[in-house]
Amino acid sequence: MNGFSSGVGFEYRRSDRAEGFNWHFVEMPYGCIRFHRAHFLDVFVKNLPESVAHFGKRLASYNQVRDGIQLEFSDGTSAICDLLVGCDGIKSTVRKQMLNSTGRIELEEHIEPRWSGSIAYRGLIPVAKLPEGQHRALQYPVMYCGKDKHVVVYSISKGTVVNVVAFASDSDKENTCYGDEWVTSCSKEEMQECFAGWEPEVSVLLDRIESPTKWGIHHLAPLPLYVTGRVALLGDAAHAMTPHLGSGAGQAIEDAYILAKVLGAATLNTLDAALEAYETTRLPMANHVLRASAVAGKMFEFNNELGERYQVLGPAIGAQWNYLDETTPEGESMRAVERMREALNKRKLSDSSTLSSRNGLLRNGHERRALLAIMLLLASLAAVFTVGHAIDVVPNVTVSGPTRPPTLTPFAYAFPNCKSGPLKDNAVCDRSKDPVTRAEALIQLWTVPELIANSVHQAPGVSRLGIPPYQWWSEASHGISWTGPGVIFAPDGDFSYATSFPSPINLGASFDDPLVFQVGTVISTEGRAFNSAQRAGLDYFAPNINPWRDPRWGRGQETPGESALHSANYVYQLVNGFQGGIDPSPYIKVIATCKHYAAYDLDQVGDVIQRNFSAEVTTQEFAEYYLPPFQTCVRDAKVKSVMCAYNAVNGVPACSDPYILQTVLRDYYGFPDDGYVVSDCDAVQSIYENHKFVNSYQAAAAVALNAGTDLNCGSIYGLFLQQALDQNLTATANIQKALVRQYASLVRLGYFDPPELQPYRQFTFADVGTPAAEKMAYDVAVEGMVLLKNDGTLPLKKSLKKMALIGPWAQATEQMQGNYYGTAPFLISPQMGAVTAGFNVTFVEGTGIQDGDTSSFSDALEAAAQADVIVFAGGIDNDVEAEGLDRTDISWPGAQLQLIQKLASVGKPFVVVQFGAGQVDDSWLLKSKDVNAILWAGYPGQSGGTAVADVLTGKVAPAGRLPLMQYPADYVNQVSMLDMNLRPNKTSGNPGRTYQWYTGKPVIDYGFGLHYTTFSLQWQGLPALAYDIQALVAKAHSAAHLDLGSFDTFGVTVRNIGHVTSDFVSLLFVKTTAGPAPHPNKVLIGYSRVHSVNPGAAAIARIGVKLGDIARVDHNGNAWVYPGLYTLSLDVPERLTHSFVLVGHAAQLSDFPAPPASWTVGADKQKHSASKPAAIWDEHTHDEQQVLRELR
Length: 1192
Fold this sequence. Notes:
Elements: E1 5-14, E2 21-34, H1 37-47, E3 59-65, E4 68-73, E5 78-81, E6 84-86, H2 93-102, E7 114-126, E8 142-146, E9 149-156, E10 161-169, E11 183-185, H3 188-194, H4 200-208, E12 213-219, E13 227-228, E14 231-233, H5 236-239, H6 248-263, H7 271-300, H8 310-319, H9 323-326, H10 329-346, H11 367-377, E15 385-386, H12 435-443, H13 448-453, E16 458-459, E17 470-471, H14 504-510, H15 513-532, H16 564-579, E18 594-597, E19 604-605, E20 608-609, E21 614-615, H17 619-626, H18 628-636, E22 641-644, E23 648-649, E24 652-653, H19 658-668, E25 676-679, H20 683-689, H21 697-707, H22 716-726, H23 732-748, H24 771-783, E26 786-790, E27 802-806, H25 830-836, E28 840-844, H26 857-866, E29 869-875, H27 896-904, E30 910-915, H28 923-927, E31 933-938, H29 944-953, H30 994-997, E32 1015-1019, E33 1026-1028, H31 1029-1036, E34 1046-1056, E35 1062-1072, E36 1083-1093, E37 1098-1106, E38 1112-1113, E39 1119-1121, E40 1124-1130, E41 1136-1143, E42 1147-1148, H32 1163-1166, H33 1182-1191
Parallel strand pairs: 1-8, 6-14, 18-22, 21-23, 22-25, 27-28, 27-29, 29-30, 30-31, 33-41
Antiparallel strand pairs: 1-2, 2-15, 3-4, 4-5, 7-10, 7-12, 8-9, 9-10, 11-12, 13-14, 16-17, 19-20, 23-24, 26-31, 32-34, 34-37, 35-36, 35-40, 38-39, 39-42, 40-41
């Protein structure tokens, strides 16, 4: 589209002060379409079919007569039409006459527009007039927020012009009369005075506006009707709204789309039914958006009940666009036509007069013509900015399916041609050479501008060399996702969906490593199939492997849980599945990206957000807890991409820290030059803007590149690397090295090689969403279910037929997917699952997730009283926990616990199904005898409703284990989320974190999970009583690394002595007082899941333990095997134990790189003696023999 600009979200800054700061970012995977009025008109004029349009005809009045509607124009002429569509704007003549003609007094308040109490200063700035010709708004829209004021800035006209709208509000004047012309010119001084004291970034913008205008912002009260007779209202005539959601024009376009659809199915005889269907469909949604826009404006100016509570305000702002998730124009049009059909069928009209496109008003089904004609009338709306669903009337825009927001034309994915053209004789096409050499041969041909242009995630390629554009940013946390810009789902048909697995936290709860590998294999297969159709790249920004340190973190759902060992095993299997093996040859399947490196597990605490937070960690805990998953990912699984995090570590932003990116990642872990480091998106920008680590964008780009950030997800490299070169802040060789790493990884993917030689290039849509993949998604959902309480009520008896299904999760569909999801082939809600299972279901929501509404309690209790069994489906969702949204409260939100307590008193069998990743305090539920069972379901994906129903009925048995501890609600008052220390500290009041270090009593312990049957456990042969450290280390030298050497494999006989076939997860822990104090409560060192153990049968769980699993980490980050007494414990709570001793001298397994002096964690914390610890148990210690005698 000519003049088109787009973005993926809104950045929010607090700006009514001398130094502003970013406090939230609202991602908009649907995109923000921004274009000038003239470009908007050009598109529709070009696509308008041949027809007659009359201009300059101002309507004075109309009369509904027998033959139609008589129109009287202000020039004295008249005309008759079959249908009048009033899209004549906020001061609509049609609306005034329509509402007055009803004679209804209550409609008088809807006739005239109302002043919102806000004024807006508006102006355009050519980019060339901006400081140094750049601005952050060229990347995405920016909202500068202050008390009672806000400024929105975004680019239009292909990024050549910046539009500025500065709002000032007085809530006391809302709905009063505006005493001036609606639009006037004003002086620059008036505008600047209004925003005096705001940060310089805003002042500079306002100063660049040459001729500002001043607008009184008006809107309508929500109308109760859009149609009378054959007259309909559309666009601003029906629902003029404030511009705060950028959705006014979008709503008008959707009006036109729905109206065209029903008119295309109507005859003159059925026109009234068509208009009624239009009104019934559009009025509720448009009024919802109208109200949401008003609410959003108050939020931007901290003028609603959320005030300045950034942590909840940001997500609440994002939620104002949630309507985009709930519906699509295509879906609404189908509903409108169906409503029309139902109305006509009630009249018992014949089929020929009901829905005839052949004989209808719009012959030959030309709804498109009707739509374009209506759109021409709408041109006066002149959308400068619109957010919403795209409509299929413009080339280059596609319409989505029901769960896929629309996007622009697919990115032009292609492959270089090594058979002919500029590259055919270059070494990059020589398959006999190694990937780095091939990439070097290519990159040495590039000019500096070409290098810089391709240093960002949306790389334009080098057309003169036949290098096509490439989008590095795609997402696939638990299935191919449209969250990033790299994956393009089709609106329908092939490639309109992909398998949507349960969230990673559910996969973690399964403790099934082979299943993790299988999931990774399916995701990569579907990713390759999308790539074959030019709908996805080959690089995915997944998985998230930050251990879940604090229960408040909103992104824990993206991880397998709180155990570093479990996270390490998870990433090994997932990367193996993604990449098609461990460092496979000749080709990698798709590239995984291990994120977020490192010590990232916080999004917002007050004014502290992930972009300005410095994680203060000791070297000991850095090496012991925060880094092991990354070590496994890089060193062992051979991943080809690592994402550096937003946060700083001990004062140094992660993406600018050569210690983290070079010393640890490349030198210590061995990350090769056919792998690249990518910044988290806009993390390079944050080095300057948020962390204030450097004093310019140029310096931020240079320090990141010099440290080892090869690819900038964002635009800072592209905008500022040339200036950084000019200022001698970096060197061209550094840019070349970064691009060599990127393109060497593409060589590994077969990017330059003949497709016929590559099996992965042969995948098609037939490999997407296969029956096997659907079965696997269901299996993950089932295996991840955790039974937290059961008094024998579950599985439900077959005699229980009438179910009262109550709660805010009962009808969940897209909620089941958590975050970072794509379009699923289907989504089965808990209600649908229960109905399919044969229950007679009565549904009552009862209350929302967190709104505190109790008005429907009586309905819920009435339904419960009439039922055989009560199932409450509740918990938390992405309105409570999400990226950018950490919790401040870990109890049940809203009025849910209150409703649970009332339902428990009904006296019927009562089951609570708890959804969401983060745990909520279940203390009351566990203690209450009236709550019979609790089932944790997490985010169970596309088949979640079926999986829940099958577990409740006993079709399958739950055997998952909780992959994180459930803390008491008061935990949030005991330790700040900013405190990164795991170990308890009496001085600070930190009670310790995770099951390893928490000194309080957990509500539910890590690894807990009940079954429908009973298992007995027995060691398969008595484990050894003593191990010689030196012998173990000597044997470990045959492994790739000492910590990977085998310690022992423990066999456990798992016997089902109950009556239900079930899986069983064996969790093996160790505890010891050997090594540096303090000592952990226990440490997970291995696990194994056995499947489908029948009643009376037994299975052998074999748990392999590596030498590194029993090691302790010293204050310098080095892993040691210490002599001493160790005790194994199996299951939670422990049911099988065994003690042994390690004898000999302590042995060092690793030599962790010493951190730089620049780290802000003080010398007292960082510097400790590196001397070898003395032997605690050696061959000359008499106590050893005594301990052995006691063990025997």
